[in-house]
Amino acid sequence: MKNLLILGGGYGGMRMLHKLLPNQLPDDVTITLVDRNPYHCLKTEYYALAAGTISDQHIRVAFPEDPRIKNVYGEVTGIDLENKAVLIQGKEPVSYDDLVIGLGCEDKYHNVPGADKFTYSIQTIDKSRRTYQALGNLGAEATVAIVGAGLSGVELASELIESRPDLKIKLFDRGDHILSAFPTRLSVYVEEWFVSHGVEIVSNSNITAVEENILYNHGTAINCDVIVWTAGIQPSIIVREMDVEKDTQGRVVLTPQHHLPNDNSVFVVGDCASLPHAPSAQLAEGQAEQIVQVLLKKWANDPLPESFPAIKLKGILGSLGKKHGFGLVADRAITGRVARLLKSGILWMYKHHNG
Asked: What is the pLDDT of residue 206?
């Protein structure tokens, strides 16, 4: 029997499981899924968990059940490519015939002193829970600093100010406008929404250090009750420590078939993979579907696909609280209630089809 080992039950891992099961997995192949949690987490909704507007239960989805899946719950500590084994804290190593690495990302602190120690995060469900506790315990008119005004920082700030309008929220960003990856029209729309809701946007900021309850912007100390870091990501430490070729962002360089150039049994999916687009759930799912095609060909001893069409992203949507939103759909900018309804609908469909 061959063993397909999937590290991480994120968006890529889940899409692979649903594509292979119940009918496409060959009889001589089993699957081992390794994840730190006994459920799939909707990472795109961590901001709402941290803000306290949804419960933990709403962002958990059960993994598929099948007698050909073995679930191993624990923390991956290393990958032994030479011996085809994965090391897991407190457990026996797990061997593999084919390996899919989907371990996701971590916060990137850009060597800012104290940032890793004195800030909160929404990169994992566990860290989001801790952030929720810290934010939920704040008294009236407390000050919350959010460092980084990309999609995560904007959604967190908007959800938090809507649920706790008594808080003083400061949103720090390095650029002239927030949401630098979006068209200026959308950035301005979101900025105006923040102004109308009392959120202070600190543009052209440069966070030089963080201490307990103190943020230094261009060297000037700013007192804060809670500091949340959403200013960039990097691949999992496990991937960063692998002795393989990587791009300038530390992501693994792959062949068109999504495996290592010198090892066609090791695939990388999602945030750790070097791909033309910025990491996203859509990208991980599209990549996972192509990896499944490669594996099915490989297991059948058929020639592998020489290339794949570019993964097409349908768009990106962001929320501004529960009633407003913004986004790009088919390169068209949309704002307001329609954008928020679209995002809610997509989330419902995902949970319905995967739950």
From this structure: 98
**223: domain range?**
109-231
Residues of the chain below pLDDT 70: 355
- Within a domain: residue 20? yes
| HSE, side-chain direction, 13 A CA sphere, residue 266 | 22
d(CA 51, CA 54): 8
Same domain, 164 and 240: no
Q: Are 290 and 258 in contact (CB under 8 A)?
A: yes
Q: Is residue 153 part of a domain?
A: yes
* CATH number for the domain that contains residue 87: 3.50.50.60
Question: 239 and 99: one domain?
Answer: yes
133 shares its domain with 31: no
Tokens encoding 64 = 């598929």
Tokens of 264: 């066609």
Note the pLDDT of residue 264.
96
33-80 pLDDT, tens digit each: 999 999 999 999 999 999 999 999 999 999 999 999 999 999 999 999
Residues 237 and 102 in one domain: yes
Task: Find out whether the peptide bond into 276 is cis, omega within 30 degrees of 0.
Answer: no
Identify the DSSP state of 139: -
Q: Which residues pair with 264 in a beta bridge?
A: none
Q: Looking at residue 355, what is its pLDDT?
A: 66
The tokens describing 294, both together, are 């490669």
Q: How far apart are the first and last CA of the chain?
A: 29
Give pLDDT, residue 174.
Answer: 96
What residues form DSSP beta bridges with 154? none
